[in-house]
Amino acid sequence: MGSVQKIDGMNYAPESEGVKHVAVKNSEFRFSAVGLDHGHIYGQTNGLLEAGGALVSVYDTDNEKVKKYIEKYPGVKIAASQDEIIDDPSIQMITSSIRPDKRACLGIRVMRSGKDFFVDKPGMLTHSEIELVRAACEETGKRYFIYFAERIHVESAMYAQKLIKEGAVGRVIHVDILAPHRLSAETRPAWHWNIQQAGGILNDIGSHQFEQFLTFTSANSAVIGSARLANYNTKDHPGFFDFGDCTLIADNGATGFARLDWFTPKGLGAWGDGRVFIIGTEGTIEIRKYLDVGVSNQGDIVYLVNKDGELRIQTRGKMGFAFFADMIRDCIHRTDTAMSQRHILESMRLAVEAQETAQIIDVK
Fold it and tell me: Would you say residue 296 has pLDDT above 90?
């Protein structure tokens, strides 16, 4: 993947370098893009295309965003309106990175039109939105997928998940997740600083971590032990938080900690030194997602220590991104293999709860 993608988290858009997972061909699965407010739309689109999806059309109110999108994906039809895409019965899925506070409403409308929805995180900003999405899923039988890229689009995270399933570290009892991000304040849209429109750090970045915690611990649900928020260095945006952390307790007894921040140093060769530390009853795993700091700018490193010894595993090109192919198959066959709706909604419930109940640190 290119260096620009690694340095700029807002436009991070992985592409498979080795193993590819293809679900369909010959335009068997048609999708369109509506709402291009966040650069993650490129990662979402890449994943669907690699899995065999056919990109039909795009719509956004911002013509410049549309122009950039069709430069990346030539030949895509520019729709005249959102309605043109939503009302098109030949389209099976709509993918979107529309502004966060508009996502639930759009997704519900998309599902009621007979289509599945695949949206950037955070997928919802309030408990009310979560319940409205849950009800729409049950009413329509359609799916509301969320792009939790920090697991599903990271080969080292997928490799660690494979090791856990194989029993390499026994039962997972604790997970620590460190998720620093580069702020790049000058490139951020106005809504990024507005908690009512963007959701806040524990909701936005945190949703990734809660999803990973549930996955790596094989938990169905969890409770928030404690959560904290602070604004240490972004005083020109009152109400914005540049730091957050949270503890979790899963329904199976596993515990966790997540730390989120906007303090990636300028000299780091990636948008964040994302790491996960997993403790099992029979071993440990460390995931170094985007680089091996001070050693190599190539990420996707997994460190495994168990009864067999110590291993450093380069996973780039070994796993691919199976989620997108599984998601397409789920949409076609109405199965539930990529990521369950319950898991998606629980991940977002934890994110919303953490944001809403966090202690606000009084920074002097």
Answer: no
Angle, CA 151 vertex, CA 147 and CA 155 arms, to 5°: 120
Range of the domain at 180: 151-321+352-360
The CATH number of the domain where 176 resides is what? 3.30.360.10
Angstrom distance (rounded) from CA 46 to CA 329 = 17
User: Would you say 31 and 93 are in contact if contact means Cβ atoms under 8 Å apart?
Assistant: yes
In one-letter notation, the amino acid at residue 36 is L
Task: Judge if 45 and 156 occupy the same domain.
Answer: no
For the packed helices 341-357 and 204-217, what is the interaxial angle rounded to 10 degrees? Answer: 130
| Sign of the C-alpha dihedral computed for residues 351, 355, 357 and 362 taken in this order | positive
Q: Letter for the amino acid at 23?
A: A
Contact 179, 260 (CB under 8 A): yes
Which amino acid would we find at residue 34? V
- Which residues 6+ apart lie within 8 Å of 113 measured at CB? 86, 87
Mean pLDDT of 140-144: 98
| Chain segment 68-85, per-residue pLDDT in tens | 999 999 999 999 999 999
Tell me which residue has tokens 């993918």.
95
Integer Cα distance of 85 and 300 in angstroms:
37
Task: Give the amino acid at 210.
Answer: F
Phi, psi at 298, each rounded to 5°: -90, 125
Q: Please name the residue that has the structure tokens 């039109």.
A: 113
174-189 burial, b at 16+ Cβ within 10 Å, e below that, comes to bbbbbbbbbbbeeeee
Which residues have C-beta within 8 Å of that of residue 362, sequence separation ≥ 6? none
pTM of the model: 0.96
